[in-house]
Each structure stands twice: as structure tokens, then as C-alpha cells.
Write a structure and sequence with these properties.
Layout lengths: L1 H14 L6 E4 L5 E4 L5 H16 L3 E3 L2 E3 L5 E3 L9 H17 L5 E3 L12 H4 L1
Parallel strand pairs: 5-6
Antiparallel strand pairs: 1-2, 3-4
């Protein structure tokens, strides 16, 4: 059943993307979407549209129709981000902030979202 939901989620994600955008599974139930040449503000808008679309969609499975929400993290490749690995780590961290804040939300990465107990070195340098 979980695989059916993930496949349908991927289809929903792809429907809102451009041909140049890259959708990839990142871990068990996580996806990453790379949006080349897209400003963070536009990526946040796309993430919010996707969040709303998922929340309002029923997902047909062998066990019946399921509904669920997603928690999204957005990060931009800017002068403070040294490479793709750090970009992915920042987006992943922002998604965990979304989850820890109650879920069904979009969080943009910035140094201000880092928790005091977090080792900030990898995300900042």
C-alpha cells in the first residue's frame, strides 16, 4: 500500500514540474525536487501548491482511498551554499523543521531555523 501511495505522489509531483526539473526519491518516503534556475521565492510557491494539491487529493490504494499531507523543505543554491550535498542537507533539515512544527507545511531554509542543539557546521560552512 505504501508503494502505491509513493507512486501516486510521484505522479502528482511530476504533473506540476517542467521538463528541466528533476524529481528523485531521497530515502524511504522522501522526495527531492531540483528546480534549476528557479529563485527560492518561486520554489516556495511551487512547494506550497504541491502541498495543497497533496492535501486535497484522495489516493486510491488496494486498501481504499487514503488522504495524507506532506512536509516540505526548500533551500536555494546561493553564495553561502558550497555544493549540491550541502544544498540537499539544508532542504532535508528544513523538511524536518516542517515535520517537527506539526507537518503539512513548507519551510524555507535559513540559518535562523537551526536548533541550538544542532551541530551547525555542516549546514553553515
Amino acid at each position: 500500500m505504501g508503494d502505491q501511495v509513493l507512486i501516486k505522489l510521484a505522479d502528482l509531483c511530476r504533473a506540476g514540474l517542467r521538463q528541466v526539473d528533476i524529481l528523485a526519491r531521497y530515502g524511504g518516503d522522501e522526495y527531492m525536487i531540483l528546480l534549476p534556475e528557479t529563485p527560492v521565492r518561486e520554489a516556495m510557491k511551487l512547494a506550497e501548491r504541491l502541498r495543497k494539491s497533496v492535501a486535497s487529493t484522495g489516493f486510491a490504494t488496494n486498501a481504499g482511498t487514503l488522504s495524507f499531507t506532506i512536509s516540505v523543505g526548500v533551500a536555494g543554491l546561493d553564495g553561502t551554499c558550497r555544493d549540491l550535498q550541502q544544498l540537499l542537507e539544508r532542504a532535508d533539515y528544513a523538511s524536518y523543521v516542517s515535520k517537527d512544527s506539526g507537518g503539512n507545511r513548507v519551510t524555507g531554509w535559513s540559518p535562523s531555523i537551526l536548533r541550538p542543539s544542532m551541530d551547525k557546521h555542516d549546514l553553515l560552512h
